[in-house]
Amino acid sequence: MMKLIQNIDVYAPQHLGKKDVLTINDKIVKIKDAGSISAEGFLSETEIINGEGLLLTPGFIDSHVHVLGGGGEGGFANRTPEATMEGLTKFGVTTVVGCLGTDGIGRDMCALVAKTKGLNEQGMSAYCYTGSYQIPVRTLTDSIVKDIMMIQEIIGTGEIAISDHRSSQPTFEEFARVVADTRLGGVLSGKAGIVNVHLGDSPRCLDLIERVVDETEIPASQILPTHINRNEMLFGKSIEYALKGGAVDFTGNEDIDYWETICDEVRVCNGIKRMLDAGVNPDRMTISSDGQGSLPMYSSDGEFLGMGVGQSSCLLKEVKECVFKTEIPLEIAYFYFLAHLPQAFAQLVNKLHFYIEGDRQVRVLVCRIDSPAHIEINICSVLKEHSRYARCAVLKYRPVIVQLVFTQIILSIVKHLAYRD
User: Fold this and answer.
1) Structure confidence by residue, pLDDT tens digits, 318-367
2) Active-site position among 142, 290, 301, 370
3) Are 162 and 201 within 8 A, CB to CB?
4) What global pTM score does this model have?
5) pLDDT tens digits for 18-48?
6) Phi (first) and psi of residue 5, to 5 degrees
7) 16, 10 in Cβ contact below 8 A?
8) What would the DSSP string read from start to end of 95-120?
9) Could you tell me which of 54, 316, 375, 408 has the fewest CB atoms within 10 Å of its CB?
10) Cα distances (Å, whole numbers) of residue 52 to 18, 192, 365
11) pLDDT above 90: residue 101
12) Contacts for 9 with CB less than 8 Å, ≥ 6 apart
C-alpha cells in the first residue's frame, strides 16, 4: 500500500523543512521537496495525506524499559506489570530495549527474550540486554559473548548495578570482565555490544566505570551509565565524566514535581541545560524512561517505604519541558530521545534519520493554531486496523514566536500511515 504525505514539515530530527514523503507498506521510500512528488500515473492508487500544518518526526527509541515488569523489593506483591505494545506506541515509543533489573530470578533471560520476540511480532522494533543487576551475569546461553553473537535480539549486557545496596557489590576485575566480554560479543556480531549500567545512590558514583576507562583498553563508548540524574552528587560526577567523553543516560520522571520535594533528583530539562552550559558534547547524552521499572523508596537506614512505577509517558513530558522550561529548540531536544550515540546505538538500529528505504517508524505532530497554549498533553489510544498496529503517535502543537507549545493529542490524520505486514 502506498501513502503520500504532501507538504509536511520534517524533523529527522534536524529540521528539513516542507517535504513530500512517500511510503510503501512499512518503508519510507522517498523524501523530496514539497510539491515534487505527484500521485499521477502509477501512483494513482496512492492514499494522499495532506501534511499542511503537520510535523513528521522519528519515533522515540527507549533504551531502558523493564518490558517484563520490575520490582519485587518489599515482596512479591510489589512486582510491577509488563509493558505492552499499546502502552509504548501510544506515547510515541517505536523502538524499545528491554532489560531485567533487581530480580533476575522471578524474571529470567528466557522470558525476556520471549517477550522481546513478541513485541517484534506485534510491530515494535524490540531488542534486549542479557543479564540483570547481578554479577556473575545469568545469561541465556553459557556466556555473554555467545548470547550477543547468537541471539538476534540481544545487543549488550545490563542493567548491571553498581554503587547500590541492591547490587552484587562487584569487584573491579569482575566488572571489567563483563564489559570486555560484552565488547567482544559486539565486535564479533556487528552489534552495539554496550553495557547498560544502573547507578545507585552510593557516593562511589561512577568509580568502577571510570577505572575501566582509565585502566583498560576498553573505550568509554562501550558503557552507558543510566539514572545519572537521580541525585545532585551523582549528576555532578556525571558532568565530569561526560566532559571526558563518556556517554550518559538521563532517566525521565513523570512525577518529578513530587520527587523533587523528597530528594535532590535533577529534572531532565535542567540537567541537559546544565550539561550543555558546561560544554558537554550533545552527542554524549541520551534519555530513557525506565518504563515499568519500580521506583522504590527507602529510609536513610535502608528500610523499604513504598514504590512507584516508571512510565514511558515521561518521554513526551520531558520533550515539552526541554522546549518550555529551558527553551531548548525542538530539533535539539528531540535528538536526546533517539538513543543516538554513534559508537553504541548506531550499530543497534539505523533509525536516527529518515533515509531512503528507511524505517517505518514515524510520528506526526499536528498543528492547530487556535488551541490555547496552556493545555496539557493527553495521550491517544494505539491506532490499529485489521490487527496491524500503526507505528506512530499524533501530537498537537502551536507555534508561539520561536517556541512550540504542545497541546492535545488526536486520533485521526495518520490512521493508515504505517503498519507492519
Assistant:
1) 988 998 899 888 778 777 766 444 344 544 443 333 443 344 455 554 43
2) 290
3) no
4) 0.80
5) 999 888 776 778 889 998 888 776 566 788 8
6) -100, 115
7) yes
8) EEEE---S-SSSS-HHHHHHHHHHHH
9) 375
10) 9, 38, 11
11) yes
12) 15, 17, 18, 19, 51, 54, 55, 56
What single DSSP character describes residue 121?
A: H
* Rama region for 8: left / alpha / beta (φ>0; ψ in -120 to 50; rest): beta
- Residue 36 is placed in which grid cell? 515534487
Give 121-131 pLDDT, tens digit per residue: 988 889 999 99
8 Å CB contact between 163 and 207: yes
Whole-angstrom CA distances from 194 to 140, 227, 336, 347 are 17, 16, 18, 10
Q: Residue 160's Cα: distance from chain center in Å?
A: 18
> Residue written as cell 569487584?
171
> In angstroms, rounded to a whole number, what is the distance separating the alpha carbons of residues 236 and 240?
7
pLDDT at 300: 62
Query: What does the block give as the cell for 51?
Result: 501534511
Q: What is the rounded distance in angstroms from the CA atom of residue 355 to the CA atom of residue 351?
A: 9
Distance (Å, whole) CA 279 – CA 277? 5
> Burial letters for 85-96: b for 16+ Cβ neighbours within 10 Å, e otherwise?
bebbbbbbbbbb
- pLDDT tens sequence across 43-57: 667 888 888 887 777
- Is 150 or 352 the better-scoring residue by pLDDT? 150
Asked if 359 is an active-site residue, the reply is no
